[in-house]
Task: inverse folding
């Protein structure tokens, strides 16, 4: 009995040591890129790749034959990691700093695992594994108590003879729903299951709409939930590798709708994942990049170059899979499911490459230097950011003193933004004539403890300000080239032809009067564009007399039922645009047809029509 | 039994008129907007006169004549028209027609750029025929409907079969139990596989020439993939004074397939006046979009029995 305890203790310590070495390799903080940071734990223990040579030197043994996909599951303070190994036909399960175990199901139901590729884990710790060579989806539960997978089972269906990837869909109630997408590369199709019930299957082999060629990855759209966690929405992204594109689908009860695709020149998309805010990440295997997109597949930024070696930071070595750590946390005394902003990539497994975690931090750039309108004492500039974040801006005088400070409530999505100064100081008095510049501090919405990669500072060139009357807050919007008016004389709401949904953005007067703002290739007459895209966009103007008041745009069906609140915030006087993505407030796809957008501001009300040509 | 040909056609399917994807919300709106003075599409059993043939032909199984109804949503220029005729030729045949369209689809900032936009339409059409037969104690009907839809160039259609059964155990209107089944059987509009079913129970208490009726009804399912609602329930109350003036009110709660919330309330009040063979009806429906958002009037000529 005593000998048994000693052996168990030795084995346990060995496992702990092995896990600590593999999952938490501590290295000095990288001094390179501020926006592409390798780490094993957000903000701590910045680490290197998980590599063959690293595992050998620390464990005296190899850990993988290859890494198929690596996912993380966070249970409050516990971080668990699961990785498929298609070469050695097993799954590695580990807890950060504690232990790592292999699971091959050699004696379990269905027999030994085969070529295991995609893997996902739900909020209830159900594990789904695409076992391609065995033509099945392997099912199990992850048990932290058992430190391994338990209650294993296999699942086959004619809809996935060669599954390559799986994606769990928790819907708007991730703690209770466990639907599943299964991607098959032999049928070039995706099937959607409320297991064991097939809800629908979609796709055939080919190059057109509704067709895929060697699809290799699937991920489900997400967005921030009202409970402080993350929820899934109806969007689905399929990496259509053979056609070198990523396809954006929108799920419906009997099948998805083909929304849009994105293709970058010369890329080799291999897998995708979606973060808490719905941004989409795609690994580009041939070019060693991670591409970050908006939910509508607008490219935000491209990260990474080729590089191997444990200490060669901010590089990638033929990445073929990517995931976002998700898990459980307590918000307001309630357990919620949430996802993070970091990503985990699986690379080619070799002596010097393998798997690595990255944080694609906040980045940005000034896109338009300050312009001034000294008649009114106004100035403005434009900038763009690459991630969701909070914004705080300053007007600084030549002596380096802050003259005006503006904080914006809430989290803003990545993309372009404009900043204005009304020529006044913080105390409301006109700023004196002189030289000034703008500064903006953007902080990641995922939180930041002061690291430079999660808080980006931007500054503009200087500009000369002549003390004027000051337009008073809010100030006038920028005047685009050719614009004669800087703000509307009356509240208005206009239709706008837009290719995809987009959040509220401030625009110039000339842009507001343009009927088309198609984000994809726009060709043909306006009539043709309406036939293609419908009318999903709106431009509106808020005059100075009604500026800085709460503006709401709500969408109603023709029956008068409220469908979606598109805008509900205080805005300054100026011109704006926004486009509906076709979803309701709960993330469900609205039916095609005519809807009414009702803008209310300062006691006034304007109604405009929106047309969905097809469900999103 | 001469209604059987219609029944056979209805349940064997009908060729598709047009093929395209999508479905207009106008079609859904038309489906859920019965002619005045019908209170509510679920609590429709209270309706007197020809307006009933739109939602439930067994509610007035012997009434014949013709009627016309118009609804207008003041907030957004949505117009709905209903027309119908009912006659006896063996069974009581009722033929209904409805259309919905929307004016000013595009604002001037778009039409000034491309005047051809005015050729794009958003409209829905609906035609139906029902054969109703049976003695007063048990009335049954079988029908076929054809819905067509144009959503700025996407045209499509749907064929719907429907069956109604209404049992009056006492042979009077004191108690009536109704069952309805509707199901798409063809067409290009993506369908909801199980269709829609509903039941209602109506109780009437007479006070000489006047009466008080109450109905409770529930509906489950939908006709189409993108129907706005997935069922609901409603209760209605109607007072009939000297068989000439009908005053009604109903409240319903509908489960939404999409929308800001999972369910929505609907409230309606109606009034109908019968003068000789003429019946005039009106209905006001409240929605969250704005006061007076739905207003309907109808005019009917009904030489046949009231029910």
Result:
């Amino acid at each position: 009995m005593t000998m048994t305890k000693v052996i168990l203790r030795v084995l346990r310590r060995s496992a702990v040591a092995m896990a600590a070495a593999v999952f938490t390799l501590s290295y000095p903080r990288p001094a390179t890129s501020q926006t592409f940071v390798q780490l094993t734990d957000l903000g701590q223990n910045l680490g290197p790749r998980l590599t063959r040579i690293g595992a050998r030197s620390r464990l005296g043994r190899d850990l993988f034959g290859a890494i198929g996909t690596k996912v993380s599951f966070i249970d409050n303070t516990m971080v668990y990691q699961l990785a498929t190994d298609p070469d050695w036909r097993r799954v590695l399960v580990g807890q950060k700093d504690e232990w790592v175990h292999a699971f091959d199901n050699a004696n379990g139901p269905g027999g030994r695992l085969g070529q295991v590729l995609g893997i996902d884990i739900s909020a209830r710790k159900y594990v789904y594994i695409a076992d391609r060579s065995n033509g099945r989806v392997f099912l199990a539960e992850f048990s932290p108590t058992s430190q391994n997978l338990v209650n294993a089972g296999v699942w086959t269906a004619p809809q996935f003879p060669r599954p390559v990837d799986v994606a769990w869909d928790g819907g708007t109630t991730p703690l209770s729903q466990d639907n599943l997408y299964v991607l098959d590369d032999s049928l070039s199709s995706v099937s959607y299951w409320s297991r064991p019930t097939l809800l629908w299957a979609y796709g055939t082999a080919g190059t057109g709409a509704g067709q895929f060629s060697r699809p290799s990855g699937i991920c489900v759209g997400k967005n921030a939930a009202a409970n402080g966690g993350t929820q899934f929405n109806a969007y689905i992204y399929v990496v259509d590798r053979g056609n070198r594109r990523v396809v954006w689908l929108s799920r419906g009860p009997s099948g998805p709708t083909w929304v849009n695709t994105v293709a970058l020149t010369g890329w080799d998309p291999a897998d995708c994942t979606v973060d808490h805010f719905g941004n989409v990440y795609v690994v580009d295997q041939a070019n060693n990049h991670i591409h970050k997109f908006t939910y509508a597949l607008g490219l935000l930024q491209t990260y990474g170059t080729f590089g191997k070696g444990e200490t060669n930071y901010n590089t990638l070595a033929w990445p073929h899979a990517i995931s976002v750590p998700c898990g459980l946390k307590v918000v307001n005394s309630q357990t919620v499911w949430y996802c993070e902003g970091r990503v985990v990539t699986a690379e080619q497994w070799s002596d010097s490459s393998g798997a690595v975690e990255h944080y694609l931090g906040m980045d940005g750039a000034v896109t338009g230097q300050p312009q001034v309108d000294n008649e009114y004492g106004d100035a403005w500039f434009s900038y763009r950011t690459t991630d969701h974040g909070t914004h705080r801006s300053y007007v600084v005088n030549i002596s380096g003193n802050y003259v005006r400070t503006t904080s914006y409530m809430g989290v803003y999505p990545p993309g372009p933004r404009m900043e204005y100064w009304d020529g006044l100081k913080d105390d409301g008095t006109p700023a004196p004539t002189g030289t000034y510049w703008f500064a903006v501090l953007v902080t990641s919405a995922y939180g930041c403890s002061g690291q430079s990669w999660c808080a980006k500072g931007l500054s503009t060139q200087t500009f000369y300000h002549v003390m004027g009357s000051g337009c008073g807050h809010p100030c006038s919007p920028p005047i685009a080239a050719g614009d004669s008016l800087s703000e509307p004389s009356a509240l208005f709401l206009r239709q706008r032809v837009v290719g995809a949904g987009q959040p509220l953005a401030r625009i110039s007067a000339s842009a507001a009067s343009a009927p088309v703002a198609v984000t994809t290739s726009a060709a043909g007459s306006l009539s043709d564009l309406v036939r293609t895209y419908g009318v999903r966009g709106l431009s509106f103007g808020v005059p100075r007399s009604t500026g800085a008041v709460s503006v709401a745009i709500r969408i109603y069906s023709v029956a008068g039922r409220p469908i979606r609140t598109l805008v509900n915030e205080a805005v300054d006087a100026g011109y704006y645009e926004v486009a509906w993505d076709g979803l309701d407030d709960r993330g469900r796809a609205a039916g095609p047809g005519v809807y009414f957008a009702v803008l209310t501001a300062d006691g006034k009300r304007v109604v405009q029509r929106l047309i969905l040509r097809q469900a999103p | 039994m001469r209604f059987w040909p219609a029944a056979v056609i209805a349940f064997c399917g009908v060729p598709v008129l047009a093929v395209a994807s999508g479905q207009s919300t106008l079609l859904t709106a038309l489906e859920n907007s019965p002619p005045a003075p019908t209170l509510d599409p679920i609590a429709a059993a209270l309706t007197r006169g020809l307006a009933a043939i739109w939602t439930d032909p067994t509610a007035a199984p012997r009434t014949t004549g013709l009627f016309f109804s118009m609804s207008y949503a003041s907030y957004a220029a949505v117009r709905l028209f209903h027309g119908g005729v009912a006659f006896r030729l063996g069974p009581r045949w009722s033929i209904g027609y409805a259309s919905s369209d929307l004016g000013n689809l595009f604002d001037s900032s778009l039409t000034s750029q491309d005047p051809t936009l005015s050729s794009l339409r958003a409209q829905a059409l609906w035609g139906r025929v029902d054969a109703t037969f049976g003695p007063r104690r048990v009335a049954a009907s079988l029908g076929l409907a054809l819905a067509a839809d144009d959503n700025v160039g996407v045209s499509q259609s749907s064929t719907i079969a429907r069956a109604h059964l209404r049992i009056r155990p006492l042979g009077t209107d004191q108690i009536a139990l109704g069952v309805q089944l509707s199901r798409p059987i063809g067409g290009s509009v993506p369908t909801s596989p199980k269709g829609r079913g509903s039941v209602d129970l109506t109780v009437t208490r007479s006070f000489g020439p006047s009466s008080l009726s109450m109905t409770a009804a529930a509906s489950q399912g939908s006709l189409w993939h993108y129907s706005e609602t997935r069922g609901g329930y409603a209760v209605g109350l109607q007072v009939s004074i000297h068989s000439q003036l009908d005053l009604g009110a109903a409240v319903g709660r509908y489960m939404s397939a999409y929308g800001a919330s999972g369910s929505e309330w609907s409230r309606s009040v109606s009034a109908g006046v019968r003068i000789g063979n003429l019946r005039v009806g009106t209905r006001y429906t409240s929605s969250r979009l704005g006061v007076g958002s739905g207003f309907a009037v109808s005019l009917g000529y009904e030489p046949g029995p009231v029910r």
